[in-house]
Amino acid sequence: MSSHRDDVVVVDAVRTAFGRAGEKGIFWNTRAEDLCIPLVRALLERNPPLAPQMIEDSIWGVTNQVKEQGGTLGRMVPILAEMGWDIPGCSIDRMCASGLTAIGFAAGYIAGGMADCLLAGGVEHMGHLPMGFMRDPHPRAEALLGGPSAFNMGMTAENIHDRYPEFTKEMADRYALGTQQKAGRAIAEGRMKDMIVPIEVELADGTKMTADTDQHPRPETTLEGLASLKTPFREEGGRVTAGNASGLNDGAACALMMSRRKAEELGLAPKMRWVATGIAGVDPTVMGIAPVPATEKALARAGLSIKDMDIIEINEAFAVQALYFLDRMGLSYDDSRVNRWGGAIAYGHPLAASGPRLAAFMAAQFTENPDARYGLTTMCVGRGQGYSVIWENMVAG
Ligand SMILES: CC(C)(COP(=O)(O)OP(=O)(O)OC[C@H]1O[C@@H](n2cnc3c(N)ncnc32)[C@H](O)[C@@H]1OP(=O)(O)O)[C@@H](O)C(=O)NCCC(=O)NCCS
User: Fold this and answer.
1) 8 Å CB contact between 347 and 18
2) Where does residue 155 rank: exposed (0-12), middle (13-18), buried (19+ CB within 10 A)?
3) For residue 52, what is the DSSP state?
4) What is the DSSP code string of 1-34?
5) Does residue 330 have its Cβ closer than 6 Å to ligand 1?
6) Cis peptide bond N-terminal to 130, omega within 30
7) What ligand 1 atom has the least distance to the C-alpha of 233?
8) What confidence category does residue 6 fall into, taking pLDDT thresholds of 50, 70 and 90?
9) pLDDT of residue 4
10) Whole-angstrom Cα distance, residue 343 to residue 364?
11) Is 90 part of the annotated catalytic residue set?
12) 57-61 and 89-92 as β-strands: parallel, antiparallel, unpaired?
């Protein structure tokens, strides 16, 4: 094990296809752990001479750590993958940024000389474990979080529309249409193929299939269709709909992280280098605004500006939250650096899986754009947090 600070690199990042939560979802009969196991195996297969015994910890973000997602899933994944007892593991919860936090902790371990080779992933089966399932908030929590809306993410998005009325429903729908179109193009062009690990599944009706394609995107989306949708979080005068919000989804994603020295020793070509992290806390009733202070912190730590970012991946929990971020960071709503393959409104948002999904998108885009130097992944988080990570392209010559 190294005893000095070393560069932290992502060697590879993969994910499952993202399914819709519920009986019609492709993963209805698949357990959360069985979404993770194929990813770990794929990372080993794709990166010889990496061997299981080289992995020093298996760190998994999981928001709802009960039932199949409880019992220290991070430890169970390598055991269930039949990699033996030697690989320790843990589970981390920072709600939507649980998986990005797993990546952040892995970066800290490696930078601090505590490890050289780690798995950092995230998984959420929202069909089996719905948001808030079995949660028992402290009786004082609601008042201290700012009111009941802090517990309902859709309501927090309505609150952003209230507080910043310059972001209208029409703008949110237009943004959502754009992300669906970008995702539709990216999928048609085959951009998801290399990062998605196919999984054999059995559907609710007993049909067997290979889950290798995201189930949530709706490339046929129109502005008229979006305008006609109900506003489930506020019946009268609401602006947040199923069309301009991320969905309820099942999925997993995982990154293989190493010290640069270890990757070189193994002859592996890293895709990107971790540069800086920024984490922020804000008013929980408008949690979606938090990527702005989180990004400002990350940029300050990196000594960079938003103008230096060639690729920006924002997790679109809600369109209004993405609009707020773009506006406050001085970016135009159609900036070509932002979510160029579409975002969570199209692909879905299986909470803890979304951070490593963003990392997989970043790594793939760096590979396709060797001229791009820096990238930003950023997410808002329930209870009022933001988590941003800045990356440097290592594919560039
Ligand atoms: C918004 C939400 C409540 C919608 O859930 P849902 O009702 O199960 O969503 P559905 O996919 O069934 O869509 C509802 C309807 O909108 C329609 N719809 C969805 N997207 C559409 C689109 N892009 N264009 C046209 N219609 C669309 C569906 O076809 C469906 O129509 P139907 O009722 O006629 O069947 C749910 O997705 C949600 O809670 N999202 C936020 C998740 C969240 O908070 N995550 C954490 C973030 S921090």
Assistant:
1) yes
2) middle
3) G
4) ---S---EEEEEEEEPPPEESSTTSTTTTS-HHH
5) no
6) no
7) 3
8) confident
9) 52
10) 14
11) no
12) parallel
